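Dataset card, provenance and construction

Sequences and ligand SMILES were collected as paired inputs. For each pair, a complete structure of the chain with the small molecule in place was predicted and serialized as structure tokens. The example below shows a pair involving zinc ion. Curators did not alter the output after generation; any descriptive sentences attached to a record were derived from the structure itself.
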Amino acid sequence: MGKPVPIPDQFSAFHWEGAARGELLVQRCDSCRRFQYPPSAVCESCQCRVLTPAKVSGRGSLYARTVLHQAFHPDFADSVPYTVALVDLDDAPGVRILTNIVDADPGELRPGQPLEVTFEKRGDGAIPQFRPVSPVQGGAA
Ligand SMILES: [Zn+2]
């Protein structure tokens, strides 16, 4: 079986196609220029229907997090405990993504902590997740 894979619809297809390439994409309204995520048919600010995919850096900061100790899907049994978080994107003001935090001790995560996107391969695609921005060590990026 394995963990669930995303099922893109006509509005979110660009997002998942980007994730499969290792890029984080959100929507940007052509009219009021606001960023938006998750993708939808209309701009939530001005109801404009012309929204364009916008690639962002994947840098962000932690807004809030919780730790799940119980698997609500059998294929997540090996993943608990895991961290579910809301992340504010640095270069897409107003966008707050519901995601997972990986490569981090949940107890050491603090609001405002700098994070960066990372992609977990799943099926033919990938799931955007976030991890603490690692300090430069030994030349590794
Ligand atoms: Zn708009």
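Derived descriptions for this record:
The pocket of zinc ion is lined by residues 29, 31-32, 34, 43, 45-46, 48 (CB under 6 Å).
The mean pLDDT is 92.
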